[in-house]
Amino acid sequence: MMIHFLALVGKIPPLNSLCNTEEIQTLDIIPQYLPLPGLEENKSKEVGYLFALFLEYYGSVFNYKDSVVCTSNMDLQKTTMNWDKGPNVTMRPPFFEFCIKDPYGLDNVARNLNHDATLYVQDSHQLALQALLKDFNDPLFAFSNLIQYPPKPRRVTQSLAERGIHSDVLPTDQLEARHVLKKMQFHDRKRSMESFGLRTMMNKENQNAASRVTKNVLGWIKSDEPSH
Fold first, then answer.
1. CA 111 centroid distance within chain
2. Which of residues 134, 164, 194 is at a domain's end?
3. Measured distance CA(41)–CA(95) in Å, rounded
4. Are 123 and 153 in contact (CB under 8 A)?
5. Looking at the 3D structure of the chain, how many domains does it have?
6. pTM, 2 dp
7. Range(s) of the domain holding residue 205
């Protein structure tokens, strides 16, 4: 979504087919943050402006009904990809309410987002922009507050039956209960993974700190050795 937007406003060129054939690059397990060196003040202002424009684009401008988010063709339409399908009456993926073309293939990577989920994505960008503009006079606070406490639209909750999901084995109430249990298990695993990631980062920082201290101590010992 970001590449599509930046290419659309002319900040980067659209990705060509040659780029799409390159091997996918994955991040390190513990990626290192590298700040932009020597970022000029006017460039910093431009980044802030583009961020607000990005939120406005996907909140109010992008045509979710007909257009496709694409990294190589900014004007790609659903009709071209044969994704201009009517409402999904089966209530099961693939959906084509929100379409993002896979840069490395011909799939819709947003195929799991139904109509309500697509509205949630759009509303999230709108609320984020409103929150950003609310504290416009203090952009640092506004951005920090947005990252830590992002505004979330109200989710439309539907039962499995309302979503057209049934079971030939389990009664409706048992199917709903199992679904709720799986959601709880998923969120528990997510919290565990996030906690593990935080501990890993802390351990890495502690290891780096211990390594620096050890090197300093060895340096002091070496410098204190009597010369012969």
1. 16
2. 164
3. 43
4. yes
5. 2
6. 0.65
7. 167-227
